[in-house]
């Protein structure tokens, strides 16, 4: 790591999310000055300097960023829209507006963009569908799909601004992110913790909601701490500049084993794949009152089920018709060697959620 980290100033877009808040904690520990930009910035991360701004309102960005002179920008945010066309319009504008607002200061040296495996599997409305599904393990040199995709649009905004303004860039493509954040739209680990807690309270088994291919096939995930480490590594490693990287824990697993391990952690019975996909979104659709009652009885910090669980996105991941794993040869060859045991990722998260009174 750089010995001159005290001279580094980071602007993290999406500092309240899974990847953003974990990165903020790591950078502050490393001595960086860290600004966190969000519509409602986090107030609970030590030394994080909050910046409240709406990236879709360019007129507000100049005043909000006055005096903020970042050397590094980490873009970890997105806004879900009803169609992919709107996803492209809105999420590319967020990147473009921010980089345009930062241009006059001329301080940006590097921009890191976090996307994900929809780069290879397709956007929400065509996710892991069709006759030409990608070959796994997924590799960074696989060509873009011939489909509209807001990840591609975000990348193109970064590339254009980098060529115009002379900064370097990196793109990071995690698999399913495992980490703690309330109100996050893609949060499989916390969703499973909430589901397991409800099963325990009701005496019901924890039933596998996804496909047979995901149940029996190989998979991997990304601990938010591993992603944060790769973001820092790529920012400080010249050989990693102007490249895209997959990022996962470094091991593989089968849900047919991990599902039982998760159920055991919560003390509930596990039920495996029964031949039919049973979406978790339907399972949790009417569980809001039950969660509110559970939260009241245990003094939990968040009584709103929808602030914790993102069943729709968990269903996307667990219902895929193919096994999905990711190749990390590109960053490994350049020296990124961080490894994280996946079972420990889940158990660490569950313990953290319990300490913070988010689950009983």
Any overview of this molecule?
Pfam families: PRISE (PF22917). InterPro entries: NAD(P)-bd_dom_sf (IPR036291), PRISE-like_Rossmann-fold (IPR055222). This is Aldo-keto reductase family protein. Keywords: Plasmid. By secondary structure, this protein is of the alpha/beta class. The chain folds into 2 domains: 9-174, NAD(P)-binding Rossmann-like Domain (Rossmann fold, 3-Layer(aba) Sandwich); 178-220 and 253-324 and 340-356, Rossmann fold (3-Layer(aba) Sandwich), CATH 3.40.50.720. It has helices spanning 18-29, 58-65, 84-102, 118-121, 150-165, 188-202, 212-216, 224-236, 255-266, 280-284, 288-298, 305-308, 311-318, 329-333, 342-355, and strands at 9-13, 33-38, 48-52, 72-75, 110-114, 168-174, 176-178, 206-207, 218-219, 221-223, 243-247, 253-254, 270-271. α2 (58-65) packs parallel to α3. It is globular, with a radius of gyration of 20 Å.
What's this entry about, in short?
The protein has 360 residues and is α/β, with parallel strands linked by helices.
